[in-house]
Design a protein that fits this description.
The protein has 374 residues and is α/β, with parallel strands linked by helices. The protein has two domains: 3-73; 130-371, 3-Layer(aba) Sandwich (Rossmann fold), CATH 3.40.50.300. Helices cover 43% and strands 15% of the residues. The strands form two sheets. Strands 6-7-5-8-9-10 form a six-stranded mixed sheet, sandwiched between helices. Strand 3 (27-34) and strand 4 (37-45) form a beta hairpin. Helix 4 (163-171) crosses helix 12 (325-338). It is globular.
Length: 374
């Protein structure tokens, strides 16, 4: 949703599309700030929903009222909001209808850890919120296949920033014949003697294909110089060459998307501690992970330099705050969908970036300078 396609109305916060859809008519959207949060919502159409400025504004006011009156009882269940009904003895009065419904859904929930149950319920709601956007990813993929367009998506960020989880949500329902996930290990002796970009180019997409790099050539911007896997000269050459390299890719009609998942130091530590204690996650823990917290400042300096020097108009970085995994994944999907003008887009969905999660490079760099928080 591009706000340049909308005009202000006489009502504050109410916008109407510049152009009229031949079937639905003009589109009305609400865009306003409430309690330091920004909201964007599609209200409906002049023909399809028989809306006028007056009736659309009434919907806007109703939406605002719902945000304030229902804040404590949001539809999205969070661990703090999730409650489990009390067990009623069989000899007591009949269970309330809500409790009967809850027991029917959850079954013998008393046998499970409450925190795990809350997490599972929240996961269900997150999954349902993501599904409409995953449908759009399938539409986009079909369009890329039909037009033989090529797409490369880079996933960068510190260890435990959520890159792998985002990739799994993005590709979950996509046609696996037309996408590949590439996670390269250490280069071989032969590869070390080659042009640095060569081993990545070998995995580039063919027409109609999407390639997702779980870490990419930007290893040379952050990981390699910190751990001594490259010389200072090799690092300097990379930083000088990478922008032109990416410009060439874009000129060759490759859709290049660069996502940087930004996790806070405290959240990274929490995730590492969980990996240490959870048998299902212990395989994720590596020697490099154990050093990540100690080397936080070193990684921060390289992150700052990388974002500042390699962000460009043809190949910009998108910084995604990833402490909240679900919100980060949702923003990543929006960024990908907004990079392609594919047909039959579901216009009822909200494609506007959440500015608290999807951060511009300029804003991220300014924050890092001001707060000394890299």
């Amino acid at each position: 949703m591009n706000l340049n396609e909308f005009n202000k109305t006489a009502y504050a916060g109410l916008f109407i599309s510049n152009e009229e859809h031949q079937v639905f008519g003009f589109k009305y959207i609400a865009r306003f700030q409430l309690n330091k949060k920004r909201y964007v919502k599609v209200l409906g159409y002049s023909k399809k929903n028989k809306l006028t400025d007056d009736s659309a504004y009434a919907l806007l006011e109703k939406y605002k009222e719902s945000l304030t009156t229902n804040k404590a009882s949001s539809k999205t269940i969070t661990p703090k909001q999730t409650t489990v009904p009390k067990v009623v003895h069989p000899r007591s009065t009949k269970l309330p209808k809500e409790c009967e419904d809850m027991r029917m859904v959850l079954g013998n929930y008393e046998g499970y850890n409450i925190d795990a149950l809350k997490e599972a319920i929240q996961g269900f709601y997150d999954s349902e919120e993501m599904k409409p956007y995953q449908i759009e990813l399938i539409k986009m993929q079909n369009y890329l296949e039909a037009t033989s367009k090529k797409m490369i998506i880079l996933f960068e960020g510190r260890d435990a920033s959520g890159k792998g989880g985002a990739i799994r949500r993005i590709t979950r329902y996509m046609n696996n014949k037309h996408y590949r996930v590439v996670a390269l290990g250490k280069p071989t002796e032969t590869q070390r003697s080659q042009w640095f970009f060569q081993r990545y180019i070998e995995h580039f997409p063919t027409g109609g294909e999407v390639v997702l790099f779980d870490r990419s050539w930007y290893n040379r911007a952050m990981v390699e110089p910190i751990f001594g896997f490259c010389t200072q000269e090799e690092h300097d050459i990379f930083m000088e060459d990478v922008v032109n390299f990416e410009h060439d890719l874009v000129r060759q009609n490759i859709i290049l998307i660069k996502l940087y998942f930004s996790v806070s130091k405290s959240e990274q530590l929490r995730r590492f501690e969980r990996r240490m204690t959870d048998p299902l996650r212990q395989w994720k823990l590596s020697e490099v992970d154990l050093q990540a917290q100690d080397l936080w400042d070193d990684f921060s300096e390289k992150k700052y330099e990388m974002l500042k020097r390699t962000n460009s108009n043809p190949a910009p970085w998108y910084v995604v705050r990833s402490d909240d995994k679900h919100k980060a994944r949702l923003e990543a999907v929006k960024i990908i969908l907004n990079s392609v003008d594919y047909p039959n887009r579901n216009t009822a969905l909200d494609y506007m970036p959440n500015e608290e999660i999807n951060i511009s490079v300029q804003k991220e760099l300014a924050r890092m300078r001001k707060q000394k928080d890299y």
